[in-house]
C-alpha cells in the first residue's frame, strides 16, 4: 500500500486541520536539547506564533503517526551518543518538512536510534521554520527564497559546535557528516557547498571551526532543481547550489524513489549531475517505488532498506572503520 506523504500533513497543519496538539517538542528522557545560539539568532524574525507540536492521528506513514514541529524560532540541538561501540563518526541530522515544519520523529529521533545503534553519534538539529529556506509559496505559486537563509545559518553554527566539542563528545572531528530528508536534503546540499565562510557574523570560538561536512547523505531531497522559465531553457540545478559546487564538496550519497510525486526525481538527478561534473565522489540509488517521506520505517518496498546501503557506503569511504 502506497504510504501517504508528509506534505499532506503540512497542508493540513497550515489549514488548521491537525489536532492532538502538545505545547512543544521535547526529546526522550535522558536527553536535553540545547540552544545553538548564546543570544538572539542572526536574522531573528518577530515571533507571532509560539512553537507547537502537532500529530494527525489520521495521517500514517509506515503504520505510525508523524510528529510535526512548527514555528521554531529558537533552534536547538540534541546530542545522542552511542550506548555501545563508538566509531568516532558523527552525523548532524536535518529533518524535512518543506521548510514549513519539521518531522521530528520520522526524520529525526528515529534516525538517531538507527545511527547510535551503529556506533555513530547523532546530533539532531531543530532548525528554524517556517520560511527559513527555499519553499513553495502558495500565494504566488512559485518556489521562493527567504529574506535570510536562517536554516543554513543554524546548520553552519551546529557544525561548528560539534567540532568544538568533538573531544568532549568522543567524536573524530574529521568524521562529521550531515544527513537530511526532503527540505533537510536541500539543507544537506546547501551546507555541503556553503562552508568557506559563515553567512552570519561570528559569535564565538565555535564559528572559527570549519563547518564543512566530511560526508553528506541526501534522502529524497527537494528544492534543488531550477525549473525552466522560458521554452528554450532546460532543467538545471538551483544556481545558489550550482555556483558553489567544487572538488571540495564532500562525498555524497543520494537516495531517491522514481515515483516521488512531491519533490520528484529531477531534484536528485540535477544534483547528482552537478556533483559528477565537479568530480565530487557521489553515489546515487534510485528505486522504482517508495514515494516521498518514508523515513526509516520499514515496508514491503525494497527502498526502505536504504540504511544498510548508507552503512556500507560509510565503511567504504572510511568513516566507520570495518
Strands, helices and their partners?
Blueprint: H1 6-15, E1 19-22, E2 33-35, E3 52-55, E4 67-70, E5 76-80, E6 90-94, E7 101-103, H2 105-117, E8 121-126, E9 135-137, E10 142-144, H3 150-164, E11 176-181, H4 183-193, E12 216-219, E13 225-226, E14 236-237, H5 239-242, E15 252-257, H6 266-277, E16 282-287, H7 306-316
What does this structure look like?
This protein has helices at residues 6-15, 105-117, 150-164, 183-193, 239-242, 266-277, 306-316, and strands spanning 19-22, 33-35, 52-55, 67-70, 76-80, 90-94, 101-103, 121-126, 135-137, 142-144, 176-181, 216-219, 225-226, 236-237, 252-257, 282-287. The protein starts with 5 loop residues before the first helix and ends in a 6-residue tail after the last helix. The protein is α/β, with parallel strands linked by helices. It has an 8-stranded mixed β-sheet, with helices on both faces. Strands 1-3-4-7 form a 4-stranded antiparallel β-sheet.
User: What overall geometry do the principal axes of the alpha carbons give?
Assistant: globular
Determine the mean pLDDT.
92
Largest sheet: 8 strands, mixed
Low-pLDDT residue intervals, each spanning 5 or more residues: 1-22
Amino acid at each position: 500500500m502506497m504510504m501517504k506523504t508528509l506534505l499532506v500533513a503540512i497542508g493540513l497543519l497550515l489549514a488548521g486541520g491537525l489536532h492532538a496538539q502538545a505545547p512543544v517538542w521535547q526529546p526522550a528522557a535522558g536527553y536535553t536539547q540545547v540552544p545553538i545560539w548564546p543570544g538572539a539568532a542572526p536574522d531573528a524574525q518577530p515571533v507571532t506564533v509560539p512553537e507547537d507540536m502537532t500529530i494527525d492521528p489520521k495521517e500514517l506513514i509506515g503504520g505510525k503517526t508523524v510528529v510535526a514541529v512548527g514555528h521554531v524560532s529558537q533552534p536547538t540541538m540534541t546530542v545522542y551518543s552511542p550506548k555501545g561501540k563508538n566509531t568516532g563518526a558523527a552525523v548532524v541530522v536535518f529533518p524535512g518538512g518543506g521548510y514549513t515544519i519539521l518531522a521530528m520523529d520520522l526524520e529525526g529521533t528515529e534516525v538517531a536510534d538507527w545511527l547510535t545503534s551503529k556506533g555513530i553519534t547523532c546530533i539532531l538539529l531543530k532548525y528554524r521554520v517556517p520560511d527559513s529556506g527555499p519553499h513553495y509559496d502558495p500565494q504566488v505559486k512559485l518556489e521562493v527564497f527567504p529574506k535570510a537563509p536562517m536554516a543554513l545559518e543554524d546548520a553552519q553554527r551546529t557544525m561548528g559546535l560539534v567540532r568544538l566539542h568533538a573531544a568532549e563528545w568522543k567524536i573524530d572531528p574529521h568524521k562529521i557528516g550531515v544527513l537530511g530528508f526532503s527540505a533537510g536534503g536541500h539543507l544537506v546540499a546547501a551546507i555541503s557547498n556553503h562552508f568557506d565562510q559563515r553567512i552570519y557574523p561570528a559569535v564565538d570560538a565555535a564559528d572559527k571551526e570549519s563547518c564543512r561536512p566530511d560526508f553528506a547523505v541526501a534522502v529524497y531531497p527537494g528544492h534543488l532543481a531550477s525549473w525552466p522559465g522560458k521554452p528554450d531553457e532546460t532543467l538545471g540545478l538551483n544556481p545558489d547550489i550550482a555556483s558553489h559546487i567544487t572538488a571540495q564538496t564532500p562525498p555524497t550519497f543520494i537516495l531517491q524513489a522514481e515515483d516521488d510525486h512531491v519533490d520528484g526525481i529531477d531534484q536528485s538527478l540535477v544534483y547528482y549531475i552537478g556533483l559528477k561534473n565537479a568530480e565530487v565522489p557521489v553515489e546515487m540509488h534510485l528505486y522504482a517505488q517508495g514515494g516521498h517521506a518514508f523515513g526509516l520505517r520499514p515496508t514491503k518496498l525494497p527502498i526502505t532498506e536504504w540504511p544498510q546501503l548508507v552503512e556500507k557506503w560509510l565503511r567504504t569511504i572510511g568513516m566507520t572503520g570495518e
